[in-house]
Amino acid sequence: MTTRVPATPAPRPPLVTERLILRGWQVEDAPAALAVYGHAEVARWLSPVMDQVPDLTAMRLLLQQWIAETARTPPPAGRWAIQRRSDNQVIGGAILLPLPPGNEDLEIGWQLHPGTWGHGYASEATYALADWAFQHDIDEIFAVVRPGNTRAAATVRRNGMHWVGETSKYFGLTLQVFRLRQADLDQAAPNAQLPPTFGAN
Model's pTM, two decimal places? Predict the structure, then answer.
């Protein structure tokens, strides 16, 4: 009698864009990751889902957890390090993860070091992840944004994402929900609908 070993998901291939490589996290990325996830300007929008990472030891443990979780998660979901091709510097991270509580909706997200904001890296990473997701029979992906995070809301709109409403079903927070479908990648983002309170803060 042969015992079948449960199949583990295949490693995610690197996603390469003009300026970036999205690849799996490595424990050796901890110093660069800490510069992102230990930065107050990044962490303020991650709470309560994730706290500001306090030190290198905590960052290494978190990376080990992320690596293990991605290895167990069926594609296209996962976590990626965002590496800049010009200098091989890790400048942030990106996710495609099921949204709780039902795990039916797939969230796209990114966190970049503030020193790299304003250069279009978030959009470049988003397009790469969206293309990867749509290759796996995913019809739509979602971004959830805290109402005060106008920078993130502006970024998702530039990426062609459309505001679809406000909800408190994810993470116990009131969040703006934006949706991206494959056809939206080819449309002009400025036509995307804005949430009613956009720009009020």
Answer: 0.85
